[in-house]
Amino acid sequence: MPIESRFIDAGDVRTHYLFAGSGAPVVLVHGGGPGTDSQDNWAACIPGLAEHFSVYALDTVGSGRSDKPDPAQFEYSQPARNRHLAAFIETLGVGPVALVGNALGGGTVLGVAIERPELVSKLVINGALGVARAPGEKAAARQYLPSREVSKENIAAFVRMCTDEQHDIGPEVEYRYLLMQDPAAVAAYDATQAWLSANGAVVYPDEALNGIRQPTLVVWAKHNRVGPFELALRFIDLLPNSWLYVIPNTGHWTMVMRPDEFVRETASFLLHA
Predict the structure, then answer these.
(1) Is the pTM above the cut of 0.90?
(2) Which residue ranges make up each domain of the chain?
(3) DSSP 8-state class, residue 118
């Protein structure tokens, strides 16, 4: 099935996205880290999902081939990412949509469900940000990252943290390193990380998460080195209409390491929940 590369103006952001398929609309939102984009996170999942849905996988503001505004004029904050995603959905004119988000992208789809619930039909979140971590849980993830410096070594450490020791990280490292040769991408990444550090990552109030009424599938790797399994249980406790699917023997990026399983469970949930 062909995957098209398209552009659209979402608010003030020229936004790149991948499109494939037909049917009910599903928007895929990638996670963070150096050199992230829709292709890196979702390439293995788009063909399978496109057998059932119209799939839109955007590069969020500051990432991939989307605009990377100067941090001196643009705050790379979580509210800005939420607004960009909402503008993207509105500009497409296909809502309400099912939102599928990985990690930081999971935090973004939750934010849109909280702030603009009329745009969202269902949610799937994989290893998402959005609930508070205990101090020890933060330290556990940081041990894998020597620094935020953009080098092949640090990108490799990041990708390894998100996968496992058996995964061939070479292609992802090369792809992400190439994208980070753009100075604007480096500036956007630095500004994003600075905001996350200053604001304690992405955390929504318990009552806001409890107010999400859309059916939500929480996907979690049992041996997730980025977000411990306890976070999945907190999401299930707080989201009133939620299911949990746990994948053993894999890392944080379940959609990269186990794409067939991720697509099967996501499609089944979106079609039947």
Answers:
(1) yes
(2) 4-272
(3) G
